[in-house]
Amino acid sequence: MKLGTYQPSPALADFVEHYWVVEDQATPEAPVRHAVLPAAVQSAIVVFGEPYQTITFDGREVRDIRQGLVLGRVTAKRLYLQQTGRVGIFGVRFTSTGFFNLFGIPMHQATDTTIDLDCAAGKFGRELTSRVIEAGSHPERVRAAEEILLRQLAKVQPRLDAIDFIAASIVRQHGNVSIDELCRIANLSVRQLERRFQAKVGTSPKLYAQIARFGYVCKLLKDEPQAQWVDVAYRCGYYDQAHLIREFRRFTGETPAAYFSHYDDFARFFWAR
Question: Where are the domains of the chain?
Fold first, then answer.
């Protein structure tokens, strides 16, 4: 498997975390299957290899990926990407509120599913797909995505607000935040914060913080594979080791020990942040 990332231009830094590319080889008899874990970001995805791909929730195939799609906020366990043939995937990994700010789609409508590209973002998805497939190299794919997104940015000229700051702060603090304190900073009631956060981010602030903390567990264990679970639980803000294990099982369906026994490069690349 070949993995790579490319940074966005400064003008897009508030909206795009990075562009990513995965290349692999599989067969119908031995497909490559990767878990897509709950994460603090979402991606637009284009397949430029042989295009038969599937997205699976709890073992149930829900769609083929034959062109571009936008994967909304993932909060559920056991979402899988299955690959066969020569695999090439290009993605735009948006910041917490980046896709909403560029395209205005209420993100709670796409949580744990994909965004219908017949909606307001359809033109973006179709043009990105066409140009990524036609491009002869990854830098060309990045340039194509940049051109399309910069054009959209100039059209909508989004203004960042308290929700953008709060979402970024939750990620920066690895989910160890107080909802009451967030409300105070934003000068919003709990209900107002919840409603606006759901629209821009796709989940409640509390769930988003739990997902960010889960991602930090993966990052620590990627960086320090010999770390003790008790120490990881303490550093990530869990009450104790049992609390960490319960939350980890909630997001992966497995205990940490079971999951990290088959933790692969794909997971390290995407979900350990």
Answer: 2-156, 162-271
